[in-house]
Amino acid sequence: MNMAEVVRMPKMSDTMTEGVIVAWHKQVGDTVKPGEVLAEIETDKAVMEFESFQQGTLLHIGAQKGETVKVDAVIAILGKPGEDIQPLLSGLSGAASAQQEKKSETPAAPSVSVAPSNGERPAPTELPAEKATAETPVVSGRVKASPLARRLAAEAGVPLTALRGTGDDGRIIKRDVEHYISTQPVTPVAASGGESFRDVPISQMRKTIARRLGESMFTAPHFYLTSEIEMDRCLADREELLRINPDIKISINDIIVKAVAMALTRHPAVNSSWIADAGGQTVIRYYDHVHIGVAVAVDDGLLVPVVRHADRKGLAQISKEIRELSARAREKKLQPDEMAGNTFTVSNLGMLDIDEFTAIINPPDSCILAVGKVKQVPVVADQQVRVASVMKVTLSCDHRVVDGATGARFLQTVKSFLQHPLSMLF
């Protein structure tokens, strides 16, 4: 390495705009080799390891554990041992590093030397100095904390002396306040009519869910088609498959994903996207491949891992992939390419005892299928009443791309496949 190089916050997913430093695997003064894990970063979808592409000595850490950093902002500098990086720091524009922000304090807090976390402006007021605990560092009579942490603590009514800092030299940072708030019990409402509440900071995943689905709901004109599907034959065929090979744990959801994938090959108009920036013009993109996104609920949001070329795969392979992807999603270990490229999405809440619901389209898809539970209900056929296992599904469509009759014909094909599963073999 000939001269110091800047390491910036990487864009680790197609929707990532900022990341949170979860942990540093190297400290200032450590040698870093290409391919070594430099840090763990929480994106809008998962906590991921960030491997260094450069070699050198870690000379500077620009964002501490728990701090939120915009994509492409400076998080570290690598160079030769003892190399003077001050000219490089001085040349960085804006608030590119937390170390640079340390030198631009506000007059309201002259006795505290801290870096504004997350690029936020320092809080306009300081909390009154309180008696510090043994674990709370104090600088010139004040508890050592970042301005953002001070502001969050003040808004939540949390004394800084109650917090334990995990930043440099025990400095209290944003994550310390969020952790403390999340572990506090909710105060019950008093009998006299008092009120209580608890504010929880928004995670990176929840921010992305709010932004993307808000854009989808208010940009794409949704309409909905609901159908009832008799599932008795599907349930019987599944039981027969499990009896023949008990090692293959095929679920109803696996069969639904396969049926949807097969139906998309017959209705390519549904396997499409509205693309507003393709070479400077708006187009409808029709996909020749079928990649099914499968919505998975996780603790703080929703992830959509993708089963690629689902139309070409057997039930056993689809089942295996969905189980593995779902497990990694809940552990937040999915890789970006495992959550990208979907051409259609299936969202199933039947296992949570939901009869039916409507789902918001998952961009860039033009449709999403919402699946309810299978339940036994009376049905009338040939003037006879019988009990049947029925499942309700609702197709949400982007009317810019898919018309009502197109969506209805697709749904009819899905229904036919599920009511006669063997027909998917032909």
Quick take:
The chain is α+β, with helices and mostly antiparallel strands. The chain contains nine helices and 20 strands.
What is the fold's blueprint, element by element?
Elements: E1 5-8, E2 18-24, E3 31-32, E4 37-42, E5 47-51, E6 56-61, E7 68-70, E8 74-79, H1 86-91, H2 98-101, E9 138-139, E10 142-143, H3 147-156, H4 174-182, H5 204-219, E11 222-230, H6 232-244, H7 252-266, E12 272-278, E13 281-286, E14 292-294, E15 296-298, E16 301-303, E17 306-307, H8 315-330, E18 344-348, E19 367-381, E20 384-398, H9 404-419
Parallel strand pairs: 14-18, 18-19
Antiparallel strand pairs: 1-8, 2-4, 2-7, 3-6, 4-5, 6-8, 9-10, 11-20, 12-13, 14-17, 15-16, 19-20
Give the oligomeric state of the chains in this entry, treating copies of one chain as homo and distinct chains as hetero: single chain
From the spread of the alpha carbons, the general shape counts as: elongated
Question: Number of helical runs?
Answer: 9
Which consecutive residue ranges, at least 5 long each, have pLDDT under 50? 93-135
Total strands: 20
SSE order, one letter for each helix or strand: EEEEEEEEHHEEHHHEHHEEEEEEHEEEH
| Count of structural domains | 3
Distance between the termini: 60 Å
Strand residues, percent: 25-35%
The CATH architecture of the largest domain can be named as 2-Layer Sandwich
What is the residue-mean pLDDT, rounded to a whole number? 83
Query: Could you describe the largest sheet, including whether it forms a barrel?
Result: 6 strands, mixed
